[in-house]
Amino acid sequence: MAQFEFDSSIKGALPADFQWGYATAAPQIEGAWNKDGKGLSIWDTFGHTPDKVKDGSNADDTARSYDLYKQDVARMKRYGVTAYRFSLSWSRIIPLGGKDDPVNEQGIEFYSKLIDELIANGITPFVTLFHWDTPQALEDRYGGMLDKEKYIPDFNRYARVCFERLGDRVKQWITYNEPGVYTLAGYAAGVHAPARSSFRDLNEEGDSSTEPFIVAHTELLSHAYAAKIYKEEFKPQQKGTIMITLHGNWNEPWDESDPKDVEAAQRAQEFEIAWFADPLYKTGDYPASMRAQLGDRLPRFTPEESRLVLGSSEAYGMNSYTAFYVRHRDAEPDINDHKGNVEVSDTNKHGVERGIESDTPWLRTSPWGWGKLLRWIWDRYQTPIFITENGTTAKGEHDFKPKGPDDVLEDPHRIDFYKSYLSEVAKASQEGVVIKSYFGWTFTDNWEWAAGFTDRFGATWVDFDDPEKPRYAKRSAYFLRDFFGHLIKGGTN
Ligand code: PNW
After folding, report:
1. pLDDT of residue 265
2. 41: exposed, middle or buried (C-beta count within 10 Å: 0-12, 13-18, 19+)?
3. Closest ligand 1 atom, CA of 249?
4. Is residue 123 included in any domain, yes or no?
5. In principle, which of 211, 317, 397, 406 could form an S-S bond with 245, CB 3.0–4.6 Å?
6. How far apart are the CA of 363 and the centre of ligand 1, in A?
7. What are phi and psi of 472, to 5 degrees?
8. Would you call the peptide bond into 210 cis, given omega within 30 degrees of 0 as the criterion?
9. Rg, Å, the chain Cα set
10. How distant is the alpha carbon of residue 255 from its chain centre?
């Protein structure tokens, strides 16, 4: 008897070549922070700075996937995935990060073995070059991405090493993960590495009114150069695809009958998503709404840069989690505003909640917004979408006491989340929105950046108190396996 019940109207809604699995990031799962020649990243520094991480933890061990990758791949196979998205640690591959610095062969060796293990188990690797862990040496030398002239050649060289050494087997490359979250959390709010902002109670240095836009510009340009290198020097033989992954939640008008709120919601959408996506997929330039508010604080593309960026990403990598209500503000925008001068709230004018709570304050289950977002992206950019992250935490998962190695954690909140969001993916796909992949965030519980171990996003529960970091399945892992067996054409359910 089937364990879960599925809606027959969406059976076979996704194409037979649809890829699905889980996404992870090196600093959140690998551990081995100083093992086998790895250099420091800005997240090692951040974790070792007192009072930066909520529970006082650091990225030294995390889930120890560096040591446990074989059992992890075997577990993924049991979960039925067809693909796995993970990131490379730049400072594991080039410990000092720079274009003239030595390559660490042991770092290459680790990723090479992981890739071989995946392929041997029939799992397609999707590889992200950069998931927020800038080499600390580059931050120290010239301020990392604040200096695009020095940074771009270093990133190009790193990308080239990865294509050269791993591109014979990796056919799906992602340059950056969420350039927007990297710059907003690290340079506007100052709550992520490299911990810069205008707020002197929190950070010693930084300028929230300018640096986020400078760093974003560096990310777009360095992405585009790396994509050009891939397409010109590697793609002809290796025949892979290269893209970037953008973050973005859905912004819904607080009062849908007020044209100012409708406009504010669209503006919020542009500040969050079109900031990166318009230069990449639509115009080669930043949205007019951003230029109007930010003026010269927003960098300008030269005509050559604009041509380089537009069309550089071969697909739309999409990370999204939730939705918010937004209301216009009558006051002038704050100098440190990066949201488009809006007020964000959990309820709309009629008191309707944006969704039920998870264990993470910003994240509510809002499938209604996710469905709208899929169509907004498709309508505006007309580019095939690879969903590269989506998922949730659930309350109460810190108290799980496994009764044995095969005990399964019941996580109905996460199952409901995945069921509702994937039903929207299926419906959008039936309508003609081109969606090629789905990666749940995330495979195992991990180190959730500044939240430390307090946010459990995994489909697998990890006992972080045990130095061996044993893993236990959550029920949602089996739900996803069975649901994809229903949704993908020719599947078993
Ligand atoms: C993503 N938001 O970050 C990252 O890619 C992951 O590394 C991270 O663990 C995961 O989502 C869960 O947080 C985001 O506030 C952080 O909307 C914040 C937001 C979105 C994505």
Report:
1. 98
2. buried
3. 17
4. yes
5. 317
6. 10
7. -140, 135
8. no
9. 21
10. 30
> Which residues make beta-bridge pairs with 124?
83
Nearest residue to 140 (alpha-carbon basis) of 191, 93, 101:
101
Extract the tokens encoding 205.
């240095």
Which is nearest to 81 in space by CA: 482, 493, 492, 408?
Answer: 482
Residue tagged 């771009």 (tokens): 152
Contact between 16 and 488 under an 8 Å Cβ cutoff? The reply is yes
pLDDT value at position 1?
37
Q: How far is CA 148 from CA 29, 152, 268, 306, 313, in A?
A: 29, 6, 27, 15, 20
CA 126 to chain centre: 12
Does residue 460 contact residue 474 with C-beta atoms inside 8 Å?
Answer: yes
Query: Does the residue 2 lie in any domain?
Result: no
Task: Name the active-site residue from 139, 178, 219, 314.
Answer: 178
Q: Report the atom number in ligand 1 closest to the C-alpha of 25.
A: 7
Task: Establish whether 178 is a catalytic residue.
Answer: yes
Q: Give domain status of residue 478, yes or no.
A: yes
Instruction: Tokens for 258, please give them.
Output: 């007020």
Residue 245's closest CA among 126, 139, 155? Answer: 126
CATH code of the domain covering residue 130: 3.20.20.80
- 481 with 5: CB under 8 angstroms? no
What integer pLDDT is reported at residue 81 of this predicted model? 98
Residue type, 8: S
Please give the distance, rounded to the nearest whole angstrom, from the Cα atom of residue 22 to the centre of ligand 1: 14
Paired strand residues for 93 = none
| DSSP state, residue 103 | P
CA distance 43 to 185: 13
How many domains, the chain? 1
Q: Is ligand 1 within 6 A of the CB of residue 456?
A: no
164 catalytic per annotation = no
Cα dihedral 170/434/430/13 (nearest 10): 0
Which of 389, 393, 417 should be mutated for ligand 1, with most atoms under 8 A from CB? 389
Q: How far apart are CA 434 and CA 318, in angstroms?
A: 12
Using a 6 Å cutoff on CB, does residue 133 contact ligand 1? no
Pocket test for ligand 1, best of 22, 87, 175, 178 (most atoms within 8 A of CB): 178
Instruction: For residue 370, tell me if it sits in a domain.
Output: yes
Q: What is the mean pLDDT of each run of 10 residues along the chain (493 residues)?
A: 83 98 99 98 98 98 98 98 99 98 98 99 99 99 98 98 98 98 98 98 98 99 99 98 98 98 98 99 98 98 98 98 98 98 98 98 98 98 98 97 96 98 98 98 98 98 98 98 98 89
Amino acid 44: pLDDT:
98
CA of 246 to the centre of ligand 1 (A): 11
- Domain containing residue 192: 8-487
